[in-house]
Here is the input.
Amino acid sequence: MADSMNSDMAGELTETEREALHTVELGVEWLHRAHGNLVEFHHKTGHAMDHLAEAEQQLRAAGHTNLADALRDQYLPRGVIDEGRWSYDVLESYQEGFLDDLVAFEERAREDIADGHRHVTERTQEREWKRRADGE
Here is the structure.
């Protein structure tokens, strides 16, 4: 659906509807930010694990077999949560369950309230500021 919204649509929504839809949209935008943080967490965890895998080899070469074995057996295969869930698994669970469900909810709310139009509050504000700038 196109994002442009005619001025008649804005007038059809109550202020309460616009505010509610705006709050849902903001909530989902913050979830996308959290998603970005989870992607960063996943990448940083992977980078750290690469360093630890290298350290295992270095410790082994330096004769510290017990420490190298601990990295190999206890820490490298271990997940970040509950010892079985790796960072990619946490990221996928967030994306495919929580985030996707709430994005779908936002789309449903936009369809039900504003015929699918996004950023209704911002569009209303834009029109008002342009009207003021034109001296109306």
User: Anything to note?
Assistant: The chain has one domain: 13-133. The first helix runs from residue 7 to 12. The helical segments are 7-12, 15-61, 65-75, 87-114, 120-133.
